[in-house]
Structures are given as C-alpha cells and as structure tokens.
C-alpha cells in the first residue's frame, strides 16, 4: 500500500457526485482537483460515499482513516444529517469525535462549512425551508467553534461567491456541478497552501 498523502472522509460531495464521471464509474470531484492542485495525485484515499451521515463516518470511515494516516486529512460530511436525519446532540457529538480523532501533531485537517443548500432544494414549502435554514446556521455556528478550538482549516462555502452561483450546483440543490467541484478543489488547495505557510 502506498504511503498516504491525503485521506478524506465524507458523504457524496466528498465522493465527487455531481462531478464528471470517469470511464471506471468514479467521479472527478473536488478531492481529485484538490490532489492535482497540490501535486499529490498518488497516495490519496477517498472514503466519501453516497448517503453517508456523520454516524457512518464515525462508525465505518474513521477507523479506516486512522489505519491509513496521512499528513493531510479532510472531513466533508453532515449534509445528509441536516436534511434528512437530524439529531442535534448526535450530530454535534459525531463532528467533535471525527475532528478530535483526526487532529494530531504534524497533520493538517481540513473541512468546509455548509452552503445555502436549503435555498436550492426543490419542492420545499416555505416552513420547511425556513426550518432547514435555521438548522444549517446552527450547524455552521457549531463547526466554527470546532475550527477555532482544534485549529482546523475550513473553506467558508457558506459565504463564498460560488455558493450562490447556479452554475456551480446540480439541479438537486445538494451536489456541486463539475464546475463547482473544480472551484472548490482549487479554493481548498489555496487555503491549505496558505495554512501550511503560516504554520511553518
């Protein structure tokens, strides 16, 4: 097994769903774009999977990630909890468990917050949409505390220009489009390079 340079835990956004599909059926998502931008195409382990929740990441992905340590590790998960399977205490407990489990000396852990998915989801009545907005805002507030506490690198998708650009998102409202995956990968690579410079 090659030395790991990048390990990513997560859901279908981490998996790359919405990005271009390769001949082997895998997705050309932001993790691939990120690795290419950082020059680490080899030694990448992407555990992202469709439908994964924070509980799935804790139970199934974290043990694999810890068995395949890398100097750069990412977590992109939580959207499925927030939209379909939300329990605040469990959600916050799982996030804390994931990030504290990955943080280690000499390792950079990155993530993103959640963009305005409730505003893009089709077919919602206004009451449901408003409730989801509050839920996402609460999740971002909690993640911000973890970022500060654990010194995580966080791409601020909630306030990024691409968050409101319809070209960057699929029609389902959840997944980045090919252009969105590319933009997120490049932006994350820039943020990681900046963080590495500061921490040297």
Automatic annotation (TrEMBL):
GO molecular function: hydrolase activity
Lineage: Bacteria, Bacillati, Actinomycetota, Actinomycetes, Pseudonocardiales
Highest taxon of the lineage: Bacteria
Domain SGNH hydrolase-type esterase residues, every copy: 8-183
Name assigned to this protein: SGNH/GDSL hydrolase family protein
This protein's UniProt keywords: Hydrolase
Coiled-coil intervals: none
């Amino acid at each position: 097994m090659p030395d790991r340079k990048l390990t990513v835990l997560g859901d279908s956004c981490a998996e790359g769903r919405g990005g271009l599909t390769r001949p082997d059926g895998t997705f050309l998502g932001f993790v691939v774009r990120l690795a290419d931008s950082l020059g680490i195409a080899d030694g990448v382990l992407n555990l992202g999977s469709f439908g994964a929740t924070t509980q799935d990441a804790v139970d199934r992905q974290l043990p694999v990630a810890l068995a395949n340590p890398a100097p750069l590790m990412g977590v992109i998960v939580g959207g499925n909890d927030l939209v379909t399977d939300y329990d605040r205490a469990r959600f916050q407990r799982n996030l804390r468990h994931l990030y504290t489990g990955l943080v280690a000396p000499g390792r950079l852990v990155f993530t993103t917050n959640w963009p305005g998915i409730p505003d893009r989801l089709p077919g919602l009545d206004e009451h449901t949409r408003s409730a989801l907005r509050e839920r996402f805002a609460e999740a971002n507030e909690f993640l911000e505390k973890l970022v500060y506490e654990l010194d995580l690198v966080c791409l601020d998708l909630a306030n990024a220009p691409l968050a409101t650009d319809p070209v960057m998102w699929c029609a389902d409202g959840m997944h980045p489009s090919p252009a969105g995956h590319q933009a997120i990968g490049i932006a994350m690579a820039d943020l990681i390079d900046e963080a590495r410079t500061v921490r040297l």
